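Hi R.,

Here's the chain you asked about this morning:
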Amino acid sequence: MLAFRVRAAVMPLFLAGTALTLASASATAAPIVTFAKGLPNATHPCALESAPGLNNQQGLCQVPTAVSQTRATWLTNVVDPSFEEFESSASRQLGPAGPFGGEASITLDSGAVGSGFYSNPLVGTTFLGRFNTTNGGGSTGWWFEFANGSVTIRFQSLIEAFGFYLTDLGDDAGGGAAASVSLFNGQAVVDGGSNLAVAGNQAPLTANGSVLFFGVTSDGNPFDRVTLTVSLSSTGSNDFVGLDSLIVGNVNTATAVPTPGTLALISLALLGLLRRSHAKR
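And the predicted structure, written out as tokens:
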């Protein structure tokens, strides 16, 4: 079951017998985005493993250390994380009752080109750079593959953090596709994607086997729907990507920094408490 918590937009503060309503320190905070991208390693053997008939049978396609470390750092700000690696048959279902033990659904939106779920090794089938990222990669495992359109993941509970690995974005000759993420709470837009986007035509995303970690936290602005969109490449061709290692959770508020406005209100309340104390003497 997905862990979640109910968050109030405002919190009452009772000091000196007076109730003050303070805006939550992050009630209007914009989503914070973390990106990391890179090739499997310096020698880049994953490109060779992507040749027809090979398909990562030796497990040479791996998540780069720098990218996995960025993911680990991002996770330190997430509480009650839940993970989805698509390794169970029940999780590899489009529509309702799919990922995260049936607590979420994944749908391929109209217009997107979907190839469905794949696993390594696929002998005789060319996947050209997409690979399983479970436990950092390896010769076996599953991922979800699509191109030119959107995938939407709906959650039964509100969440504040979402992360994933995306493999093989932006390797189309002449200019790769771009990816963006939009967040929604019901019908309300938390972020429309303009702030949560990454261009695919940048090194090192221009080679087969590249890996992108995308992580977003939205403390005080929870969401229950995520849409991942991958565009056509600049040449008009489909740029297939692999989606894997999904994470959902909430934000670690213990590390949250109060806004200046919140600090000012707290100071005002404390001042009122002191004045009331002096008045009673």
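The first helix runs from residue 46 to 49.

Let me know if you need anything else.
M.
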